[in-house]
Amino acid sequence: MSTTHAVTAASAGTFTIGGDLTVNRLGYGAMRVTGKGIWGPPADKAAALATLRRAVELEVNLIDTADSYGPGVSEELIAEALYPYPKGLVIATKGGWERPGPGQWTHNASPRHLAQALEGSLKRLRLERIDVYQLHVPDPAVSYEASMETLAKLREGGKIRHVALSNVTREHIERARKIVPIVSVQNRYSFADRESDLVVDHCEKNGIAFMPWAPLGQARKAHEALERVARELNATPLQIALAWLLKRSKVILPIPGTSSAAHLEENVAAAGLELPQRAYDELSSVPHEPVSLRG
Which of 111, 124, 145, 273 is the S-S candidate for 75 at Cβ 3.0 to 4.6 Å? Predict the structure, then answer.
């Protein structure tokens, strides 16, 4: 498959988040624009900025990030590259994890921290309101209801348009929905890592967007299956993996990340790839892997 520039994120079709934010279904995850270990500035800042700008040129209008990416670096780069933001661009960010060092992640979804995290994201992104603000992960040391009630209050105060979740179960979703409307869920998910299959189905049933991270399966059999289908369709393995996600459910909004404009163009080209049912079924039969938190 050619990565012609005629194929843009718009080729994947659209989904409306929360009833008022219509986005192209192929988004962009901005975790990888940071340094090694998702820590500090990128080795090539110019390339990172160029990748973000290229995403918008390719009609990507959903960018996912988090305050813990850098920490703060990803959000700062997004603002530097794209502010003032083009009309219709939706930036989804997260709070609830802290970063003591490279490759290290610690829980903190206390009400006080979430309020501070939101203020930090607003400042770095140069926004007065976050369109989609996600609890990065439930904190086992903090009442889940207290975390969600904090986000509900911040939404009522006008600093969050929509509340969302990440790294959660169906039970988490329903407990949260008793407190505040939930517009999206972000879990690790791919054709070869279907731990969240039931969550995807639950989101589809309730009109909630599902943003899968880590779209490539890591097992050898998974890669063999991808490579076989990719050869048949003259595409790359990652394009096939993304096409599977787009076919899996109309609520799925893949957010593949990269720090390379060339890789970004390859990913976006998947928006124009129609995966045959036979290939979809073959990939769907690959045994899934256990899930681990990150994203």
Answer: 124
